[in-house]
Write a structure and sequence with these properties.
This protein has 503 residues and is mainly beta. The chain has a single domain, classed as Beta Barrel (Porin). Helices cover 7% and strands 39% of the residues. Strands 1-2-3-4-7-8-9-10-11-12-13-14-15-16-17-18 form a 16-stranded antiparallel barrel. Strands 5-6 form a two-stranded antiparallel sheet. A hairpin with a 6-residue loop joins strand 2 and strand 3. The two termini are 22 Å apart.
Length: 503
């Protein structure tokens, strides 16, 4: 019912322009409706450029996370120009990723292991962005945002066996419909506290071209939390940057979402030239990594707080630091209790679902920094932690994560919109979670049947090539040590080719 003419055009263009989709015939069935959207890359773009989705939106540049001025190409960076004055917004994106891996060492496999055989898979995500400025007053702007999305393809090994999975554009559940679905439906309201204005990039998640330098912003409806929280312009967009789940997002942030990466709720934030603060409360899924949300906020919800400090640690450069915390209250189980039930003979293996109950709270925090070193080179770092006593419920199975990443624009070789990036991320889980997997327990992502524990260390690098207007291609390689925290298996090499179009 959602297959509008623009959506069909996006789908057709994706299949004809991108390199990867023709390989999809190698898959026996289409797959999950996709993951969390990718966010905006934060690359220097002219005002006419559209934001690209990232299973998540990008913050307005007035948050001061905006990059330093860069030499820009005269050509537009979307296939079609977008009006800076119209009340409406219509744009789209198509992203296709081909991934392949050779076979790797694996003396055993469990139900949730990454398959050790050689394989390849293709994913594709198409998005139609629609927006309308209902109230255009600069101090009190109102946007109505409605986005439709469709996704197909599978992840390597059915997207199982890696805490830091290699493709953010797929989800684990192979049984979701591949029909288009409502990705976002939200109201975005600005309440200005001053008449002093700052420029803002117009895009699918914020239609104003100017915003008050001091203001409140409110969002209510269906959205993806990485649209708003945990933004990092170096590592936040699987469509133009890195592809790994725990590089583009904080893996220890078990943010409220269904299996596609979306939820319903509300967020309020205060923005100032030097800092910002936001708070949001959102619905949790009814089961771990489930598609259905629990609408009873009194018994299940996820709360998120984030403070942004727009400060550079290098004189004359741009930088930002963000501190995020979260607390999830949902029908979750406890790893230690599940293992105790197993030793008591109550279950044949540890089963987290046997000890689930309402009132269980999981909490954590994150430190997130981005910093320009030169006009073309910038670095990023994250440290994420959660208590990891309660079951991983919505995003992935990580109790602690450490990330260092960087990217470099191609200005020196006369390709200012090209970019090369490299990242290292190290993921870990705590002892109770380790024991749960060691004795044969299954999470929604991991479970080899046994475990010889080691940190899951991942290195990723890419080159993103701007071909023409809104058309981009990328080559990407990832190396995973101790997949699923298991020293008995791996290492794993994953090679990727990506095609991306912004309409």
């Amino acid at each position: 019912m959602y297959r509008t003419v623009p959506a069909v055009l996006i789908r057709v263009a994706a299949c004809t322009v991108l390199l990867c989709p023709f390989l999809a015939g190698g898959q026996s069935t289409p797959l999950p409706d996709a993951p969390m959207p990718a966010h905006q890359s934060g690359e220097p773009r002219p005002l006419s450029a559209s934001l690209t989705l990232a299973p998540l939106p990008a913050p307005a540049p007035d948050r001061n996370s905006a990059p330093e001025p860069q030499p820009a190409e005269s050509a537009q960076l979307t296939m079609f120009p977008h009006s800076q004055t119209a009340r409406y917004w219509i744009s789209g994106q198509a992203n296709s990723i081909f991934q392949g891996k050779p076979g790797f060492h694996s003396p055993y496999q469990g139900p949730n292991s990454l398959d050790s055989a050689q394989e390849y898979k293709v994913s594709i995500v198409d998005t139609l962005f629609l927006g309308y400025q209902a109230h255009r007053n600069q101090r009190y702007n109102t946007d109505f945002i409605v986005d439709f999305e469709e996704a197909g393809g599978r992840g390597l090994g059915q997207a199982l066996g890696l805490a830091g999975f290699t493709n953010l554009d797929v989800v684990r559940n192979p049984y979701l419909s591949t029909a288009p679905y409502l990705a976002r439906g939200e109201i975005h309201q600005t309440f200005g506290l001053t008449n002093k204005m700052a420029e803002s990039d117009r895009g699918p998640f914020s239609l104003a071209t100017e915003v008050p330098v001091r203001r409140f912003e409110v969002r209510v409806g269906k959205m993806s939390l990485p649209d708003i929280f945990d933004i990092n312009d170096v590592a936040t967009d699987s469509h133009l940057q890195f592809m790994n789940w725990t590089v583009d997002n904080d893996g220890a942030w078990d943010y409220a979402a269904d299996t596609r990466g979306y939820t319903v709720g509300g967020e309020i934030e205060y923005d100032d030239p030097k800092w910002a603060f936001r708070y949001g409360i959102f619905a949790m899924p009814t089961v771990a990594n489930g598609i259905d949300l629990d609408w009873a906020f009194s018994r299940a919800h996820g709360q998120n707080w984030e403070f942004d400090w727009f400060h550079s640690f290098l004189r004359g450069r741009t930088g930002a630091t963000r501190i995020l915390s979260f607390a999830n209250d949902a029908h979750m189980g406890n790893y230690r209790e599940a293992v105790q039930h197993y030793f008591a003979g109550l279950t044949p293996t540890p089963e987290i679902t046997s000890v689930e109950r309402f009132g269980t709270v999981k909490y954590g925090f994150e430190w997130n920094n981005e910093q320009y070193i030169t006009s073309n080179f910038r670095i990023a770092s994250r440290f994420g932690w959660n208590d990891d006593q309660e079951e991983s419920y919505a995003y992935t199975e990580v109790g602690q994560t450490v990330l260092v990443a960087g990217d470099y624009y191609g200005t020196r070789w006369h390709r200012p919109q090209d970019k090369v990036g490299a990242a290292f991320v190290s993921n870990a889980i705590k002892k109770d979670h380790q024991n749960y997997l060691k004795y044969g327990g299954l999470g929604f992502i991991l479970g080899d049947g046994r475990l010889n524990y080691g940190r899951e260390n991942i290195v990723e690098s890419y080159y993103n090539w701007h071909a023409w207007r809104g058309l981009f291609y990328a080559l990407d390689v990832q190396h995973v040590d101790d997949p699923g925290y298991n020293r008995d298996r791996g290492p794993v090499w994953v090679f990727s080719v990506r095609g991306h179009v912004d309409f």
